[in-house]
Amino acid sequence: MKQKKASTFGILSGGCLIFLSLFLLVVIFSALMFTNPTTLGSALLSKEIHFAVALTLVTASIATLLALVVGIPAAYFLSRTEFIGKNMLDALINIPIALPPVALGTALLIFFTNTPVGSFIDNSIVRFVFEVPGIILAQFSVVSVLAVRLMKPVFDGIDPRYERIARTLGQSEFKSFVKVTLPLAKNGVFGAAVLAWARAMGEFGATVTLAGATRFKTETLSIAMFLNLSVADLDSAMAIILILLVLTVLVLFVSRKIVYRGAVTS
Amino acid sequence: MRLMSTSWKLLVVGILIGIIVGSAGVFALSQYVASTPKKIVVFAGAASAPVLEDAGEVFQSRYGIKVELRFGGSGSVLSAMKISKSGDLFIPGSPEFLIEAAKSGVVNVSTGDPKIFAYLVPAIIVQKGNPKNIASLEDLAGIGLRLGIGDPESVCVGLYAKDLLERAGLWESVSRNIVVYAQSCDATAALIPTKAVDAIIGWHVFQSWTPDKADIVWISPDKIPKIGYIAGAVSNFVQDRQSAEAFLDFLASKDAQAIWARYGYFATEEDAKVHAPIAEIESLW
Amino acid sequence: MKLGDFALDRINFEVAGGECIALVGPNGSGKTTLLESIAGIHQIGTGRIEINGVDVTRLAPENRKVGYVPYDCLLFPHLRVDQNIGFGLRNKDAIAKRQISEIMDWLDISHLKDRSTKGLSAGEKQKVALARALVRHPDVLLLDEPFSAVDANSRMQLVEDLQRILSQARSTYGYASVYVSHDLSEAQLMTSQVAIMNSGSVEHVGSWEETIRDPKSRFVAEFMGYNIIHGHIDSIENGFAIIEAEGQTLCAVSTGLMPGQDTIVVVKPQSISLSLDRSVRKKSWCHCKCNVIEGSVAAIRGKGSLAQVSIDAGFALSLNVGLDVLEELELGLGSKVFAQFKASDVTLLPAMTSSDQKISISYKEKGLDTI
After folding, report:
1. Using a CB-CB distance cutoff of 8 angstroms, which residues of chain C are in contact with residue A170?
2. pLDDT value of residue A246
3. What 3 state SS string does B139-198 have?
4. Considering only CB atoms, which chain B residues are within 8 Å of A12?
């Protein structure tokens, strides 16, 4: 039912959206226009950037995977169970999201270097401080809670009666979760995973504090950008922005395709 | 329904106008506030941080000129000046960065003598009590040690650390133990009190920043090829040249000397050379 | 149903293998809750549930051999019809495939095999849900209001189908079934016994015949739609109780109640006959003690081919009358009319309803997470 003339409110709210989009586009493109193609090209070919790309992809993917392994059951439990102190736990889980990543990274650093349990783990089991596992841990800390936050409403939206019926049909709690709940939650979980992965790819504050900014060792893409800026190497910094943009767009595009193919409403 | 949409319209328009006007007002105000009272913006390497902070306060109370300090790795702050094309003074932790600043047109060292404020000697800083029993530069190559230095690309002391290790033929063996390249002098220094590493190569003053958490192990004099010094120059982006030069003068003055000394910096080349008799000093001319 | 507490009384009934019992009652009386408790979806606090001689009270639903068909079928949306049906089978091998196609044949839904669950008619959904429950050969079949979602037109066909299927299933496999409904006539068709629930307790268990003939409590009588009259026993003469109710005199076969007691007089609508004068209309009644009550027509409601007539005789009497009789007697609103019914067709109940003390099995609904 088309209105003859768009309402003023519609125009104004539409205008806000356009403003936001333009804002983003202008920032991105003016940054890209800053460097010329040749220096940009040679920067893109640098070994250091290739290393950073590989490292970031690997660590972000592992961190996201771990976040899902832990996060899916956690979100499911949070969604289905009532227990004393649930509200408090719910609030607690939100803290890492509100906390600045640098604070999270610092807390982890202090834990591993200054507490008996932490030092034991760091010295004897896995070395996190200033090492690659530290990247994964930092990304995981930031991302896992985000994943739980995103996936809880997904499970909330699945009628628990489906699970109950599955149980009357002979499936254990676990089996009915796997055979019924998960397939129905597929799209939501996938969406959460993509967002978590994107967040992990861009993680900086916690990563740089816990894993340090060592070239060719703990140099993720965002850390590489930071290092390039500190030596005023703007071409390399731009190259990284470009790469991150392309990767983000690719992932979002592909994930949309997969979701729509599944044809299950989110 | 008509009536409601009119009031909604007004509300939205009102809010938007409010936001626009408000931000414009705040912006204008900030510019005004920024420009009226005298202020200088100093981009400095963190090597001189504690002194500059104290000195800045004294300078402000004495002359009424506000001193705004921006710290970081000497290279990092130089990059920030290059990118933003702003800043009144550049005071890196070592002269190499002044030279680079001159090369990239951020400062001009030909006019007048750059003022040298204090001298710095590279040293090994260890955990209090020296639990790993490090006595010399060679000990840093010990198996299982975890070391940190400043990032040679952007931190003054990092540059010096790499240089002296290379000249001692120890870069290969020691660098294997380097697990972190800190991004500024204060970040390098902080590695010890937070127990993040076993030892660092830093400026000697780092130990006096956290004396109850760190010990100093002087490097044998024959292994120190170069000592550093803190000098500053007026940048080419300066807004208030007079105030900027006044601050530089102040930092070299007797009053300021007391501050430098209080934090353990060497006031003269001779004092520094006690620990590094054969060391060179990078020349700026 | 996230209420805190819902109390189920001591529920006592048995269903023999091959038998089907109807579980009826008003909304909120706990039918679905009871059904789900049998299925294991709710854990009960105290009490026992035995299926096939096995005490399943503490068993998880997956370990009880029940087949549950909920009122909204709950077919899995992410699986095809045949996958839904085969969901509960342990293996997915050739034997399983055969079992699935056999049951689909039997229920006449083979043509739906590869369809998704979207777009199925209510009747088709019912059958798929039934197949899904039956393919596992459960010991107990639990059906929750199978026809609630089906429109009136398809209902007849479905009722016939279900009757056929269920009786076949019961005779072949011998499992017991519990059939929940709020529609009495439908329930009567499908089952031989009935359990009537009221606010969480089972008021009455018995065969349909018994229940219809002899409602043992006021609640049951009301639920069956019988007329309830409050009265007072004046005297007992010759085996008949003389009752005074709202100025009218009734007589009924005395059943151990004493004069001076308050009583509840139950008159089934189907026992009442109408006439325009005091003479007993039905010839066969001439030798019996009869009640002839004067009243006026208070309301006439159409109910398909019958009219439901409410009569005001100081108390309310309601009955169904054929349209022809309505015409013949020229009954309209306010018409004076006489309601006649035999004394032997009247049931007397004590005025105090004998509900058991609530030896309650109260529990908190916790879903499946606690055992």
Report:
1. 62, 88, 90, 136
2. 84
3. HHHCCCCCEEEECCCCCHHHHHHHHHHHHCCCHHHHHCCEEEEECCHHHHHHCCCCCCCC
4. 9, 12-13, 16
Beta-carbon separation of C368 and A81 below 8 A: no
Distance from the A233 Cα atom to the nearest Cα atom in chain B, whole angstroms: 8
B185 contacts B152 by C-beta, under 8 angstroms: no
Distance CA B126, CA B214 (A): 6
Instruction: Tell me if C340 sits within 8 A of C277, measured CB to CB.
Output: no
Burial C19-30 (b: 16+ CB within 10 A, else e): bbbbbbbeeebb
Q: Which amino acid is at B86?
A: S
Instruction: Give the single-character DSSP code of C356.
Output: P
Cα→Cα distances B66→B26, B58, B242, B253, Å = 21, 10, 13, 18
Structure pTM?
A: 0.77
User: Which residue in the block uniquely carries the two structure tokens 């002269």?
Assistant: B95
- Chain B touches chain C, with at least 3 Cβ pairs below 8 Å, answer no
Average pLDDT over residues A190-208: 92
* Residue in A173, A175, A184 nearest the CB of C78: A184
CB B235 within 8 Å of CB B88 = yes
Q: Do C62 and A167 touch (CB under 8 A)?
A: yes
B residues 154-173 lying closer than 8 A (beta carbon) to A: 154
The pLDDT, as a whole number, for residue B10 is 61
| Chain A: residue whose CA lies nearest to C132 | A169
Burial of C140 (0-12, 13-18, 19+ CB in 10 A): buried
Type of residue numbered B233: A
Two tokens, residue A160: 């628990």
Amino acid occupying residue C189: L
Which value, in Å, is the radius of gyration of the alpha carbons in chain B? 23
Tokens standing for residue C146 = 């199978």
The Cβ of residue B138 has, within 10 Å, a number of other Cβ atoms equal to 15
Reported as a pLDDT band with limits 50, 70 and 90, residue A55 is very high
CB contact under 8 A, A180 and C60: no
| B195 touching chain A per CB within 8 A | yes
Residue with tokens 């996060």: A71
Instruction: Give C132's contacts in chain A (Cβ within 8 Å).
Output: 169
- Let me know: does B183 contact B155? Beta carbons within 8 Å: yes
- Closest by Cα among C182, C181, C184, C121 to C157: C121
Q: Within a 10 A sphere around the Cβ of A250, how many other Cβ atoms?
A: 10
Q: Put the strands of the sheet holding B147-150 in their side by side order.
A: B178-182, B147-150, B199-203, B122-127, B214-217
> If you count residue pairs, one on A and one on C, with CB atoms under 8 Å apart, how many are there?
64
* Minimal CA separation from A87 to chain B, in Å: 35
Q: What is the predicted pLDDT for the residue at C5?
A: 44
Across the interface, which of C67, C76, C367 has its CB nearest the CB of A160? C367
Task: Quote the pLDDT of residue A35.
Answer: 66
Alpha-carbon gap, residue A146 to A139, rounded angstroms: 11
C-chain residue closest to A162, CA distance: C74
Q: What ipTM was estimated for this complex?
A: 0.76
Q: DSSP label at B235?
A: B
Question: pLDDT, tens digit, for every residue of A103-144?
Answer: 999 999 999 998 999 989 998 899 999 999 999 999 999 999
Work out the minimum CA distance from A96 to partner chain B, whole angstroms.
22
**CB-based contact A108:A206 (threshold 8 Å):** yes
The string of pLDDT tens digits covering residues C203-225 is: 788 888 888 888 888 888 888 88
Task: Name the CA radius of gyration of chain C, rounded.
Answer: 25
Decide if A260 touches C, using CB distance below 8 A.
no
Determine whether the interchain pair A165/C74 forms a contact, defined as Cβ–Cβ distance below 8 Å: yes
Give the pLDDT confidence score for residue B12 in this predicted structure.
63
Helix axes A132-156, A101-114, angle to 10 degrees: 130
